[in-house]
Amino acid sequence: MSAKYSIGIDFGTESGRVLVVNVNTGEIKSMHVECYPHGVITDTLPSHSNLLPIGSALQNPKDYLHVLQNGIPLALEKAGLHPHQIVGIGVDFTSSTVLPVDKYLNPLCDYPKYHSSPHAWVKLWKHHPTKNRTEQLLKLATERKEKWLNKLGNNISEEWMIPKIVEVFEEAPDIYRETEYFMEANDWIVSLLTNTITRSNCSLAYKSFWNEEDGFPIEFFSSIDVNFGDTILSKLKGEIKNVGTCAGYLSEKWADQLDLPIGLPVATGIIDAHSAVLGTGIHHSETLLMVMGTSTCHMMLNNKLKEISGISGVVKNAILPGVYAYEAGQSAVGDIFGAYVNKHIPETYSQEARMRGISIFDYLEEKANQLPPENGLIALDWHNGNRSILCNTDLVGALVGLTLHTKPEEIFRAYLESTAFSARIIFETYQNYGLNIKHVVACGGLPQKNALLMQIYTDVINIPIQVSKSNYAPAIGAAILGATAAGTHSGGFDNIKEAIKSMSQPIEKTYYPIQKNVQSYEKKYQIYKDLHDIFGMSHSYVMKSLKSNKNPSPSLENI
Ligand SMILES: Nc1ncnc2c1ncn2[C@@H]1O[C@H](COP(=O)(O)OP(=O)(O)O)[C@@H](O)[C@H]1O
Ligand SMILES: O=C(CO)[C@H](O)[C@H](O)COP(=O)(O)O
User: Fold this and answer.
1) Strand 439-443 to strand 287-292: parallel, antiparallel, or no bridges (unpaired)?
2) Does the beta carbon of 461 sit less than 6 angstroms from any atom of ligand 1?
3) CA-207 nearest atom, ligand 2
4) Fewest Cβ atoms closer than 10 Å to its Cβ: which of 171, 276, 509, 558?
5) If we measure between CA atoms, which residue out of 81, 90, 92, 86 comes closest to residue 23?
6) CA-to-CA distance for 188 and 194, rounded, in angstroms?
7) What is the 8-class DSSP label of residue 490?
8) Confidence of residue 556 (pLDDT cuts 50, 70, 90)
9) Mean pLDDT of 30-36
10) E.C. number, please (predicted)?
C-alpha cells in the first residue's frame, strides 16, 4: 500500500509555505515557500501614490492565492506523489488578518471602484492605525462589564478583527455596506477551497469577541452603533466549526486548479501560533511554547481556566478538544532585528560580511557573541508596540546607555536581550496566575537562525530551552489537521491526538542556562523592569484602571 500524505499550508507575514507531510512518520516529503509578491503594504497601494495612514499594514489577497496556485503544484511535483496519496489539507494563518468580500467571496479590493481605498484591502494582523477607536471600544466594553473581556486579557487589541471592521464601518461606509462577509484570511482560504462559508472557532474566539457559550456580543455591537449592531452579524455569518474538524471538501474548481482529487477533506483553519502547538506535539500543561519569528507568541495549554490580565486570551477547544489554550505575545521580535540590520548597519560591516560570504545577521551575531552580558546598554523592544502585558500599540522602543563609542554589535545584542527580558515578563505573568512553567520549547524561524539569541533567552529565564527540529511547526500543525479532517477511513486519523503522535516534530537541540550569565542577566532584568514600568505605565491601560480606582492585575502589581 502506498504511503499517505497531508498538505499543510502556513500563511505567514511575508510568505506562505506548503508542506507535504507523511501521515505515519511525520517526514516532510517536500516543501515550497512562496514570498508574497506585494509583501506588506505600508506606504502606498499598488498603482496609487496617496500615502497610507501611519501604522498601516495591508496585503494583496492575490498573494495568498499565488501560494495555493503555485505552491501546492510545485510542492506536489517535488514530492513526486500521485494526487491520490494526499488525504487532506490543513491551513494556518497569521491573525487577525481580515478582508471584506462579496457573496462570491471575491475581495472588494478587486473592484476597480474600491482599488484605491485601503479599507477594501486585507488588513494584516499588524495593521495599527486604529488606536483611538480601539481604546474607545475597550472603554465601552469595560464600562459595560462585558464578560468576554475577562478571557481576552481584559484588553482589546488593534490587531484583532472587530476593531479592523469598525474602522471600515466608520471610515468607508460604502465598502462596509457592500461587504457581504468580513473574513479572517484563514477562513477565506478554507471557504474558497470548499465552496462553503466556514469559520474557525479559534480565530473567532481570540480575535472577534465570540465565545462558545454566548456567541457574538450583539448588545455590545449595538452599543458601538445601532446600525453596526443591526448589520454586523450577517457579515460574520458562516458555519462555526472547531479546530480538529473537517470544514468541507475540495471543490471541483479548486481540485482542477491544484491537480488534486475532488472532494479532498479540508480542515477547519487555525491561527499560526496555535498550529505550532500541534506541530511541536506539546500536550503538557507545564510546557510553554515560544513561536519565534517576525513576532513571538507564547502558548500554553491547561485544563483549568485562569483569567489573566494582559495576555492575548484564553479559549477552550481552540487547539485541543476540552483543553484551554493560552496565548500571549510580543508584537515585534525578528522584525526589530531585521529593521536594525537593514537600516542602521555601517557599510564596512556589510562589506566584511559579504567578503566572508556570510549574512549580516550571522556576522553581527558572531561579533555580539564576543561581548559579555554585563555591557551597559539596555533596550526596550516596543518598536511595534507592546502586545503583552501592557497591551499598548502606541509604545515605542528605547535604547539606554549609548556612548560615542557604542558599536553596532552592542546595540544588536541589546535588542536580542530586550526581547528575552520582554518574554520573561510574560513568563512571570503566567506564573503569577498559577500556570507553572517547567519546560520551554521554541519553534519558528528564529531559533534555528540565531544560537546566541537562544542562549540569551535561556540565561534570562533560567530554564533549559528545547528547540524543535522543524522551522515549520505551524505548517506541520496544519498538516496534522488535514490528516485529522480525513479520518481513518481515508488514511488519516480520527482524532488530533493520534495525528500528533505520528506527525509532530521532535526536539533537535537543548540550550542550558550558563549560571554566570544567569546572574548577570538577573541584575540587568531588574533594570529592564524599571524601564518597562517607567516607560510603559504612563501609557498603559493599567494606569487607566488605576485612575478609575480598579485593582491592577496581580502580575502588574508585582512589577
Ligand atoms: N540570523 C538572524 N538573527 C536574528 N533575526 C533574524 C535572523 N534571520 C532572520 N531574522 C529575522 O527573523 C524574522 C523571520 O523569521 P521567520 O520565522 O522566518 O518568519 P515569519 O515570522 O514570517 O514566519 C525576520 O523578522 C528577520 O528579520
Ligand atoms: O497574533 C498572531 C497570532 O495570534 C500572529 O499570527 C502572529 O503574531 C504573527 O505571526 P508571525 O510573526 O509568525 O508572522
Assistant:
1) parallel
2) no
3) 4
4) 558
5) 86
6) 10
7) G
8) very low
9) 97
10) 2.7.1.16
HSE at residue 350, side-chain half, CA atoms within 13 A, is 8
Contact 37, 64 (CB under 8 A): no
The dihedral of CA 442, 445, 448, 450: what is its sign? negative
Q: Is 369 in the pocket of ligand 1 (CB under 6 A)?
A: no
Q: Give the tens place of pLDDT for each residue, 506-540.
A: 999 999 999 999 999 999 999 999 999 999 976 54
* Cβ-proximal residues to 555 (8 Å cutoff; 6+ apart), any chain: 308, 309, 310, 389, 428, 429, 432, 433
Predicted local confidence at residue 548, as pLDDT? 42
* DSSP label at residue 388: S
The distance from CA 185 to its chain's CA centroid, rounded to whole angstroms, is 13
Ligand 2 center–CA 295 separation, angstroms: 6
More reliable by pLDDT, 6 or 555? 6
Nearest CA to ligand 2 atom 6: 94
pTM over 0.90: yes
Cα of 312 to ligand 2 centre, how many Å? 11
Show Cβ contacts of residue 363 under 8 Å, excluding neighbours closer than 6 positions. Answer: 349, 352, 353, 356
Query: What is the spatial distance between Cα 396 and Cα 535, in angstroms, rounded to a whole number?
Result: 9
Q: Is there an atom of ligand 1 within 6 Å of 13 CB?
A: yes
Rounded CA separation 472/10 (Å): 8
Region at 323 (left for phi over 0; alpha for psi -120 to 50; beta for the rest) = beta
SS (H, E, C) 289-342: EEEECCCEEEEEEECCCCCCCCCCEEEECCCCCCCEEEEEEECCCHHHHHHHHH
Phi, psi of 439 (to 5 degrees): -130, 145
The mean pLDDT value of the chain amounts to 94
Phi-psi label, residue 39: left if phi above 0, alpha if psi -120 to 50, beta otherwise:
left
At what angle are helices 334-344 and 360-369 packed, to 10 degrees?
100
- Nearest alpha carbon, ligand 2 atom 14: 13
Q: How confident is the model at residue 182 (pLDDT cuts 50, 70, 90)?
A: very high
